[in-house]
Amino acid sequence: MSALRPFHIAFPVRDLESSRAFYGGVLGCPEGRSSDEWVDFNLYGHQIVAHIAPIPERPEPDHSNAVDGHDVPVPHFGIVLTMDDWRALAERVTAAGVEFVIEPYIRFEGQPGEQGTMFFLDPSGNALEFKAFEDLSSLFAK
């Protein structure tokens, strides 16, 4: 298998200023190219692009599924971090006063695929998950 390549995702946001404040300020993502309708961010080496789009006001994600006793919002996106980076991000997001959908915790503790995970929403209501493994080889463990 070849080396892992950067991932790209484009997602809808209500406005660019709150997106810049959240992704650039709270999450610390460097900004790349932009226009009046979109902005690129570098999310740990991956390209995420916030595009202005009509988004209905929604208090919560469209759906959720039960995973390890928590209601996981669907859809969502995020990244797998090192455990140190995950802990640092959890502290940063907490300090910024971001409300968690699922607070940082260890999922599947003592089982294959044990991982740190946390979920929260961006200002436009997009659900984000950040996770980490002590042993990355357990990412796809059954």
What would you note in describing this structure?
The protein has 142 residues and is of the alpha+beta class. The protein has a single domain (8-54, 61-138), classed as 2,3-Dihydroxybiphenyl 1,2-Dioxygenase, domain 1. It contains two helices and ten strands; from the N terminus they run βαββββββαβββ. It has helices spanning 16-26, 83-95; strands spanning 8-13, 31-34, 38-43, 46-52, 63-67, 70-74, 77-81, 100-107, 115-121, 127-132. Strands 1-4-3-2 form a four-stranded mixed β-sheet, covered by helices on one side. The protein is globular and about 45 Å long. Pfam families: Glyoxalase. InterPro entries: Glyas_Bleomycin-R_OHBP_Dase, Glyas_Fos-R_dOase_dom, VOC_core. It comes from Rubricoccus marinus.
What keywords describe this structure?
single chain, about 140 residues, alpha+beta, 2,3-Dihydroxybiphenyl 1,2-Dioxygenase, domain 1, 4-stranded mixed beta sheet, 2 helices, 10 strands, about 40% strand
Care to give the gist of this entry?
This protein has 142 residues and is an alpha+beta fold. The protein contains two helices and ten strands, in the order βαββββββαβββ.
